[in-house]
């Protein structure tokens, strides 16, 4: 795997930290040692995916009810300029990745984004995140 492939793969994931008791951790290590999983992360990802599948109907119903965009929603400076020129404001609701280009100014973000809810990851400049802090739910 090339360095570029690793950068792309890492950009698609977020690191989380969990605390486990020694017995749970030992059982995970046993399953890895016995070849059921390639490593601890593989087991944890599989367990999380299984839970998401088990609750798929609830997730689907909630996405519909809350009118969330599922996946990726990206806003460029041009997108937000168009919104401003139309005299509109956005109520952004995303389940996945919400992204605002780095060249979007805090002033433009404030003028065009009324509220933003991201269940997952929000990528935006620190300045835009700070400006929108009171509007991020």
Query: What share of the residues lie within helices?
Result: 40-55%
* Overall tally of domains: 2
Unreliable spans are: 1-9
Structural class: alpha/beta
What is the overall number of helices? 7
Strand order of the largest sheet: 1-2-3
Gross morphology: elongated
Distance between the termini: 38 Å
Largest β-sheet summary: 3 strands, parallel
The average pLDDT score comes to 92
Which strand-content bin applies to the residues?
A: 15-25%
Q: What's the total count of β strands?
A: 3
Protein name: Transcriptional regulator, contains Arc/MetJ-type RHH (Ribbon-helix-helix) DNA-binding domain
Organism: Noviherbaspirillum humi
Could you explain how this protein is built, in words?
The chain has 137 residues and is an alpha/beta fold. It folds into 2 domains: 18-54, no CATH class; 60-135, no CATH class. Helices cover 50% and strands 21% of the residues. The chain is built from 7 helices and 3 strands. A 3-stranded parallel β-sheet has the order 1-2-3, with helices on one face. The longest helix has 15 residues, at 40-54. The protein is elongated, with a radius of gyration of 19 Å. Mean pLDDT is 92; it is low at 1-9.
List its salient traits.
137 residues; Transcriptional regulator, contains Arc/MetJ-type RHH (Ribbon-helix-helix) DNA-binding domain; alpha/beta; 3 strands; three-stranded parallel sheet; RHH_8; Arc_rbn_hlx_hlx; 2 domains; disordered N terminus; 7 helices
């Amino acid at each position: 795997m090339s360095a570029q492939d690793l950068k792309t793969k890492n950009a698609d994931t977020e690191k989380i930290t969990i605390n486990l008791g020694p017995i749970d951790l030992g059982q995970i290590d046993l399953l890895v040692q016995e070849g059921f999983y390639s490593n601890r992360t593989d087991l944890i990802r599989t367990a999380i995916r299984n839970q998401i599948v088990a609750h798929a109907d609830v997730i689907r119903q909630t996405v519909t009810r809350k009118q969330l965009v599922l996946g990726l929603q990206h806003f460029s400076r041009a997108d937000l300029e168009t919104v401003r020129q139309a005299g509109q404001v956005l109520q952004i609701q995303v389940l996945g990745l919400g992204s605002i280009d780095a060249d979007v100014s805090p002033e433009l973000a404030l003028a065009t984004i009324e509220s933003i809810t991201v269940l997952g990851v929000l990528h935006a400049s620190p300045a835009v995140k700070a400006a929108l802090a009171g509007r991020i739910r």
